[in-house]
Amino acid sequence: MLLAGGLLAQTAGCGAKSADMMTGQESTAAEAGGASAKGADGQESGNPGFGGEGAADQAGDSAERGGLAAEYDEDDLNAEWTEEEAVVITCSGTDAEISGQGAESAGQTESAGGILRITQAGTYVLRGDFEGQIQIEAGKGDLVRLVLDGFAGYCEDTSPIYVIQCGKLVLTLAEGSENQLSDGSAYVFASEEEDEPDAAIFCKDDLSINGTGSLQVNGNYSNGIRSKDDLKIISGTIQVTAVKDGIKGKDSLTVKDGQLRITSGEDGLKSNNDSDPEKGYLIIDGGQIQINAGDDAIHSETWLTIHDGEITIEENYEGIEGMKVDINGGTISVISSDDGINAAAAASSETEETDSREAERQKMEANPDVYVQIAGGQITINAGADGIDSNGNLYVTGGTTYINGPENRGEGALDYNGSAYISGGFFAAVGSSGMMQTFSADSEQQMLMVYYEEAQAAGTAISLTDEEGNELFSWVPEKTYECLLLSMPELTDGMTCTLTTGENSQEAAIDGAITLLGEGRGFGGRGGMGGN
Description:
By secondary structure, this protein is mostly beta strands.
């Protein structure tokens, strides 16, 4: 159930206190692989600067939004093991002492590192230092649990852990243990046609990581952790540094809990199946996540659902990107050089390979199946381009959102191609006025849209008080801004507010869905007053 309540008085600075924040909320989503969620009507707004007349029909499709609910098997959640029932492998250099059945030393890699092979279901405990590759090639339905208990693995010319086949690999980080896996910067493949494995941990099947120990992964060749099926991070302290993607699950990526620190040359968290509409999804249920990424910090090809967690995106190109983005809870901070949150349909893989410009154009096309929905959580965005950019529709039904938008007048703190609808929660956005949009004019919740005669310097405080002098809102934006869009439950028809920006105050008589102060200074097209 989606909840929205009365907004408490805001405190100075960026720390906003929202209306009844959503806790313990249940997702309204379909199960993964179930019916796909629809966007809204997908029509272009009649008046782009003010959201127009084409707002979405909430009753018609709201039950089909909300994102996906993660599913966890008992094997995913179980991090228990006993040494008596396990095969213990004690490593030193390229050698290993093995106690039990199911594992064997099996020759050497091209770089003269050792090869350890696991061939059947069971629990295997790795200790010590190993130079070479650990191969898992068990039965198609076999569950293999690999316990890292004070283990350091390095392989110069291929993946330190390579899962060729099994039903599922559960990688358990033993309590109190510190573990590390690293590869070299150049891999050796059997032929020029091959390009896998390509990660420090590479799994062709399902992969789950649990336990309470720590793991440091260095993907010096390409990716850090990669599964070609479903990848689940259940718990543990995991630090990944990768030349390309940090943690990548092709069919899906789910984070339940744990502490993740990712530094990547390309995407941070990624699910990349773009050929099956029921796959390629990413779910975050919790955890503490910090990401520095060269491209998208969090990326999915289809559904991207955030239910909870503490997510800090410190540096990236685009912060959060998916085709259907649902934020139901959590604390999210995004600093991006491009869009903070972006919803776009994936271009075809063939186009991606042959024409990058055409692929980007396809992503930016208006699409009724594309949307961003904010139903809960506390979101802070500092964006070099659009704060929120939906190449479809946008819905805000709850939560607290602050956007420090672009200073470039060719971008806007709020940008969408279809309709935008606000019915609850708290939303404040500042930025340049050139391409700024409001929510659609038939939104349920009132908006205040302010255009300033002169750009306001970064750090110029904004506050809003009611007729009795009670402070409803206060904020100190971090960047220069030309306009303010504010919506919250306290804005009601007939009330008169006082808006103070720096040392200047002006009255605002709230009337209808959009109350306008000042005149837009857009350079034409979709934003502000420009072109209208």
